[in-house]
From TrEMBL:
Chief site of localization: membrane
The keyword Disulfide bond is annotated on this UniProt entry: no
Coiled-coil features, chain-numbered ranges: none
Originating organism: Macrosiphum euphorbiae
Location in or out of the cell: Cell membrane
Recorded GO CC terms: plasma membrane
One example of a Gene Ontology biological process annotation: sensory perception of taste
Protein name, as recorded: Gustatory receptor
């Protein structure tokens, strides 16, 4: 807004600067969410790598940790794991509504862009200027589709990486023979297992409406495919033809206004 100052500042101008090109709000939501999720994932990864450095089976040996040090370390690891899971839950409660809106509007934006590529962009333009504008709109639409897909996939990969790191420590605990441990260490291991079973059901979600993981990609793909296939089957319907013509007129009007 400082480089290209608008002639007048009103609601429409603000919407154009922040929600259209270059999609400032969308990038802010993605960047902040990805930064926080990657930060938490790195902490879970560090915690898992620290567990690998502990004595095998949590059994003390000559020249290694004492049993009291092992018990104290297991307690600290368990409490740290619990605090990190609480931070993830707090982030889900605080940012879940934002992510819900982000994924919802991203889906509708993808649907609108694909609909434009399939139906509206195929209309031939009479003049060379209109043909150039149509080609430019197609290129921008493809670029926005790629941007939306990359942003959504990056967030889903980050959340799935965190979920993987949360339960990765289970494989470490399953290798421990609890019956051979002292009572204090045995108690910490059992508390840790119970803690993991509780957090396993508390998955990261978009404000409770759906879980955010890699399966969401398949759900979005199926929904997009079903909707677009239905629109292709009804492309000769009078209402669909009228809608496509109105959409094309709207795009021309927006380009002339800009």
């Amino acid at each position: 807004m400082w480089l290209w100052s608008p002639a007048r500042l009103d609601f429409g101008t603000v919407v154009k600067y922040f929600f259209e090109i270059p999609c400032v709000m969308e990038f802010v939501v993605f960047a902040t969410a990805y930064f926080y999720l990657f930060n938490l994932g790195s902490r879970f990864d560090t915690l898992n790598r620290f567990c690998e450095w502990m004595p095998a089976g949590l059994v003390t040996a000559a020249g290694t940790w004492t049993q009291s040090e092992i018990t104290e370390t297991m307690e600290r690891v368990r409490l740290l794991h619990s605090k990190l899971c609480d931070l993830l839950r707090v982030f889900g409660f605080g940012y879940g509504g934002v992510l819900l809106c982000y994924f919802t509007f991203n889906f509708f934006d993808l649907l609108r862009n694909f609909y434009y590529l399939i139906h509206v962009s195929r209309y031939d333009s009479s003049s060379s200027a209109s043909s150039y504008n149509n080609s430019l709109n197609v290129i921008l639409t493809v670029a926005f589709c790629l941007q939306n897909v990359v942003f959504v996939v990056c967030l889903l990969i980050a959340v799935s990486w965190i979920n993987e790191k949360i339960i990765e420590i289970i494989s470490f605990l399953r290798l421990i023979h609890v019956s051979k441990l002292p009572i204090d260490t045995k108690l910490q291991v059992k508390l840790f297992m119970n803690q993991l079973s509780i957090f396993e059901w508390d998955q990261f979600s978009a404000f409770g409406f759906f879980h955010i993981n890699l399966r969401l990609i398949m759900s979005i793909f199926i929904l997009l495919t079903t909707t677009l296939a239905t629109s292709v089957q009804m492309k000769e319907h009078p209402y669909v033809v009228r809608f496509n013509n109105e959409y094309q007129s709207y795009l021309k009007f927006e380009y002339n206004m800009s």
